[in-house]
């Protein structure tokens, strides 16, 4: 198992949006998808997922509907709304800019100052 | 969002709640199942897989709660949940809840009661059209340093009415009372003289018939009257036939033309009118010199409604122009030149009158503010009590809080829960309190109402009173709730879970500390209240035991009015003499006297006296207070004659003018020479030299109009030498015991003389008592609330110590097992009492010393820093505190070491 990192506060929403943008998922599916797309590097506290999902639904970024899961259980599936898609784009851009800036700051060599 | 829409969303959230709850459960369950499936696939047993899945999921309840929060509509659910839970908790300890509720109801109720009086007397707008446009017009004499006065003569009023152009309407009115009975015992109704525009300008509408207009109020008007709605209901049963019927007022027949709208009681707050008559009707009741034309008969008050858009500055400027013209046209012709000149220079002032006028504001505002502070303190003390109750109970619930925290309740959530309990308590207390305040306010109004001054207040609730009570309720709830809520939710999970109900050594002392603070502050506040009530009580006691210079006991006062008997003035004295001798013959009557005025009444008659003495005072010092009496007056009132003789049959209308003076008169006018036999005279009236009057007797000083007055110079003249016959005189009857048929015997005697004589009965003792309304109000109420505060402080101390003793039972057990004597355990506990008491008393004494000077004006015969009162209050408080502390201390003394240790 690769070494795991706690996710930064505030980034859980972004990860959920990204995970759901790849196709409708139920709660447990979101968890698995995040593990999968981060190659197991990001650890999500399982219970904490649900308050975040409920919040995103309330904000109109996700919509939820009941359906049947692959193993024939009744499950609630989440998918992205158009507002959610827009938000994902914004947050991803923001995150990339921030990451690039920090990376560039950290890679600065003494002679460049 | 509109109100309706948000309401709908709340309702639908509540309806959806159960479904949401099920969905949430199902979703989380599905998660755990899915996870367990995966784990099972990796080789675990099903049972182990489910266990692991649950552990991995984390704090299930906590996340559920967070989901509910994220779902919205949450607050209301929480509130309902908290309320339900709070009710259950409160119901579990019914005794504590009842005590808390009762003290809150008492505290909040008392505050509401006093505040509604303040609101009604001082703050409430008149129930008329746009009251903020109303102003009262006052007259001011720039040459004298006195404040503006409200009274006007009718000629002045007519000038203002006819020449002003700043008001869209003006009106004048005057309070009066009218006798409904025709001869015999009087039946007074309260009335007003109202000018033609009175109702119109105020915007009061008729409930039946019509109200006055200009045509009803002109010289020579017919006798018409408008009834108040209340009087119409009371006296005519609300019958429409009342309109057009007649009503005898002061023996004159008036025709009822209408009824004013309900809820309108006049513009004087503190009284109401039953009947209104036009100003012009005064001519029916006056003799040949009617007050309609009298230029120094000050009896009317004036109000006006400012024209819209007129600024205060403009109003002031226009009144300044109007005043000289008004006063010049109504100069009293019989005044001297100087007086007339000053009269012309008087000015008119307008003051806002949206709240009407009231004599009560001057008389009762200070007592009311004092009482407001008193009941505020009582409420604070009650709050402190409930806070310690809550603290003790919260300590007992530590385990519960720990469990709830472990299950995922956040600290804010627990605090909110505790505060909900407190607010629920205080709201319930406030509701009870409002009921109790309704009753209390009515009682207070009856209490300040006297025979000569019936107080009427419209005590209907308004938004201000309800808002005040609501604010007090919330504040109280927070006040007694916040400290226990903060303290008790700061539990460490492990210590609470393992420690049981007894706490660990290090926490023990700390836990009583806030309790100690609370009790000490209760002691301090109670001391402040006790000192205040002690001062009022002491002052009141001084007033009632004061030597008045006459004996007020067993004296009946009978006011006899000859007005409606229509006798020629020359016969009036004979008729009064006749009645006096008949009254003296009634069995049971010991002595009878007669006088124009009675002691300690509002009626005042004073004039300047000149004496041929080198030391005779001048100016205001020469003012002497008059009375005209029969020879029976002094013996009946038991005022001793010190020198000279009493009046007798020698003193007639035609004999030498004589006078009996009091000690103060002698001290002021004849400090160095004998006064007896000297001559004095009153100021000359225009064109007539006043006759010389010989001093024939000297009596002891007595009170003239108030118990608080310094002694006045007084002069008593024989009733037979009265310059102008009075319509009404008073008889003083001393009876050994007041026989039940005395009044009817007096009525019979008077009827035998003349059927038209009206009689009014009072007792002298009651008349004196009535002059002490304020003092009695303050003394009674502050004593009541001081006692209440003492009781609350005792309960607080008792509760705090009982709690302490319970907490330290094990310690006491150990001490006793090791050989401590019960007495030393007792002193251990009493030392705590002494510390709390000492701290509280010092703080309370300091606060008292700093604040009592505000009470000085209300006190009689002692300073606000009266040491006797302070020492007595401290003594009483200490005795009460040790009593309250002794009961739990005795319990500590009787701790059985074995039982205590086993319990641990």
List the helices and strands and how they pair.
The complex is a heterodimer of chains A (113) and B (904).
Chain A: E1 5-6, H1 11-21, E2 25-26, H2 27-37, E3 42-43, H3 49-58, E4 62-68, E5 74-80, H4 82-106
Parallel strand pairs in A: 1-3
Antiparallel strand pairs in A: 2-5, 4-5
Chain B: H1 3-41, H2 46-57, H3 60-71, H4 74-92, H5 94-123, E1 134-140, H6 154-163, E2 167-179, E3 184-185, E4 188-194, H7 198-202, E5 206-209, E6 224-227, H8 229-236, E7 246-249, E8 252-260, E9 275-278, H9 282-285, E10 301-306, H10 312-328, H11 337-344, E11 347-352, H12 359-396, H13 398-406, H14 411-448, H15 463-488, H16 493-499, H17 505-544, E12 555-561, H18 569-584, E13 589-595, E14 606-611, E15 623-629, H19 633-637, E16 641-644, E17 658-662, H20 663-669, E18 679-682, E19 693-699, E20 714-718, E21 728-735, H21 742-753, E22 758-763, H22 764-770, H23 773-807, H24 809-817, H25 822-851, H26 867-893, H27 897-903
Parallel strand pairs in B: 3-22, 4-9, 6-8, 15-20, 17-19
Antiparallel strand pairs in B: 1-10, 1-11, 2-4, 2-10, 5-8, 6-9, 7-8, 12-21, 12-22, 13-21, 14-15, 14-18, 16-19, 17-20, 18-19
Helix pairs in contact in B: 1-2, 4-14, 5-12, 5-14, 5-15, 6-10, 12-15, 12-17, 12-23, 13-16, 14-15, 17-23, 17-25, 17-26, 18-21, 23-26, 24-27, 25-26
The number of domains of chain B: 5
Output mean pLDDT of chain B.
87
Rounded radius of gyration of chain A (Å):
16 Å
Q: What is the N-to-C succession of helices and strands of chain A?
A: EHEHEHEEH
Q: How many helix segments of chain A?
A: 4
Q: Percent helix among the residues of chain B?
A: 40-55%
Structural class of chain B: alpha+beta
Largest sheet of chain B: 10 strands, mixed
Secondary-structure-derived class of chain A: alpha+beta
Describe it.
The complex is a heterodimer of chains A (113) and B (904). Helix content of chain A is 50%, strand content 18%. Chain A has helices at 11-21, 27-37, 49-58, 82-106, and strands spanning 5-6, 25-26, 42-43, 62-68, 74-80. In chain A, strands 2-5-4 form a three-stranded antiparallel beta sheet. Chain A starts with a strand and ends in a 7-residue tail after the last helix. The relative contact order of chain A is 0.16. The model of chain A has no long low-confidence stretch (mean pLDDT 83). By secondary structure, chain B is of the alpha+beta class. In chain B, β7 (246-249) and β8 (252-260) form a beta hairpin. The A-B interface holds A 26-28, 31, 45-48, 50-52, 54-55, 58, 69, 71, 73-76 and B 23, 26-28, 30-31, 33-35, 37, 56-60, 62-63, 66-67, 69-72.
